[in-house]
Amino acid sequence: MDETKKSAAQGTQTEIIYDELGPEYVIEVYDPKLNFRGVAVLDNLNLGIAKGGIRMTGTVNPIEVSRLARAMSYKNAMAGLPFGGGKSGIMVDPKGMSLNKKKAIIESFAKMLRPFVPKYYIAGPDINTTEREMMWFADAHGDWESCTGKPANYVSRKNGKTRRGLPHELGSTGFGVALSAKVALEHLEMKLKGAEVTIAGYGNVGVFAHKFLEEWGALVVAVSDSSGTIYDRSGLNYAKLMKAKAKTGSVLSYPVSTTSKKLTRDIIYELSTDVLIPAAGPDVINATNVDRVKAKIIVEGANIPMREEFEKILHRKNVLIIPDFVANAGGVISSYAEYMGYDSVKMFKLVEGKIVPNVKEMLLSVGKGSGMPRDAAIRIAKRRILAGKAPFRK
Ligand code: NAD
Description:
The protein is an alpha/beta fold. The protein folds into 2 domains: 19-169, Leucine Dehydrogenase, chain A, domain 1 (Rossmann fold), CATH 3.40.50.10860; 172-343 and 352-374, 3-Layer(aba) Sandwich (Rossmann fold). It has helices spanning 3-10, 62-78, 99-112, 131-141, 172-187, 204-215, 238-248, 308-316, 324-327, 330-340, 344-366, 373-387; strands at 25-31, 36-44, 50-51, 54-56, 84-90, 121-122, 155-158, 161-164, 196-200, 219-225, 228-232, 260-263, 275-278, 297-299, 320-322. The strands form 3 sheets. The chain has a 7-stranded mixed β-sheet with strand order 12-11-10-9-13-14-15, with helices on both faces. Helix 5 (172-187) packs across helix 6 (204-215) and helix 10 packs across helix 11 (344-366). Bound molecules: nicotinamide-adenine-dinucleotide. Nicotinamide-adenine-dinucleotide binds next to helix 6 and strand 10. Nicotinamide-adenine-dinucleotide binds at residues 168, 173, 200-206, 224-226, 265, 279-281, 301-303, 328, 331.
């Protein structure tokens, strides 16, 4: 990670900030045999067991993990889940590492966290950890409930109840992002049918946001990945784009037509559009391009696609921003569904039943004043956390 990305991940913090919410537990572990350090931060447990993914990077540290755990407290509270906020980090860059070594590290981390998992913390996937790592984690820990995001064929049969993994690869996050866009358009009294959408980042989140928005009649006119932007004013067809991307790994291999063109990667943030969905990395909207953003609505699929100061600038220009921890909560709602033993049909219903009313409540709370949606959402989340009475607290 370069220095800019590193400071964005840490903000300007030089140490963990303790306040009225937490963090309640900061657990640091070290495995002298495998020579790696790990950290789990359980930010606040008022609403329930802390929930949040495991990040495995060379730059993750306790400060970054504590900030992410706080974001999870807000995200879970805002999503209306009986989960507190947590996050963990394994401080090793897995790039170029053998699969055996990575597996050994995940297994060791799972065992070291046993005193806290799953009683106070349930893990999940995050950067460089997927359904495979979750399977390793659960196997080594020994409890199916120790983490979510496990493979669909990872089954538990207990007390006559069958529970299966619900991998993030089912598209719950992209579905929630698409729903957030739908509610935001309704809020501005704009039609979803024919609304123009641009999606920056075509991975798990971006792909599924495209799929659902297209199904509901929106026109996804531009999509980018690390190789560039593909634009088609008559709308990019989801099935065709998936096929093209699968073939070459790039959205730029989408079939050329009289209405389509290839553009540079970062120009996507500057295109005129009804809805812009940043679904790649952090800080993609920044000092260099914020003045050229022309979207009417921004739905933050990615975490921290821009710092708050840039959200404020766009808010002053009447851009409606649905903040990350509200818009991309579909993944953690799916985690809750997995924990409860729901199937994917019930999971998608739950995502809809949570995201739609919560985005509406946030927008209602902003009212007609000049307040920011992010501030309104934090107010709602804080109120819920401070009033929370998880049963295990008694
Ligand atoms: P992913 O790795 O599946 O996809 C990322 C995509 O972004 C890839 O297509 C990649 O080519 C593209 N990309 C990378 N750098 C880019 C750049 N500079 N410009 C344009 N595109 C670029 O990741 P994902 O799971 O879709 O996650 C995307 C974001 O959403 C991350 O910030 C992640 O933290 C957040 N998020 C994901 C989930 C989830 O369930 N997957 C849940 C909540 C939040």
